Amino acid sequence: MNLLSTVFALIFIAIVALASFWLKEEVINEYKNFTLNKNSGPSFFLKYFDSTRTDKEGNLQSSLQAEYMKHFKGEEKTFLFKPFYTKYKNKKKHSTIYSDVGEINDKGEQIILKENAILVRLPTKTKKVLKLFTHELNIYSELDVVTSQKAVKMIQEPNIEIDGIGMKYDNKDGILKLLSNVKVRYEKPTGDERFKN
Fold it and tell me: What is the pTM of this model?
């Protein structure tokens, strides 16, 4: 009878140990869910967000503005509504990018502008205005590069229209490359004497 009591006591202790382990896991999972639900709102938000980046001498390199900004500490992401990014070169506006929504990652090193993203390279003495339309643009601030893996349409004055998939714009070198499926359409300008038969 002593052996039976010992076996029963060991089985009872094993059941209590398993139940305690299961209960501990359930409490931890419930706490995690409660914490996530409690922190589901933004950590902070701003209306009319405005941020600038300068070089070591204090010269303006870029600015990022948005109508509304929300930061979520748990995700380490910042979401923007109606973002507007401006790149400066030689103390002058060089290009702008804007879209309907945006996201800031890696403490500002990567900015993603989505939904009707438009890049405009402003005209210079040697180049005309260039506009690029796509669904998403990725801005890498430190590298001074803008990329996209989506379909893009590029329009350059006077009458050049280029479609492709994916692009890379190196702002330092001023080179914009379309990566694949490139199709070019050029219309002769009307009234230009060089194109008359």
Answer: 0.70
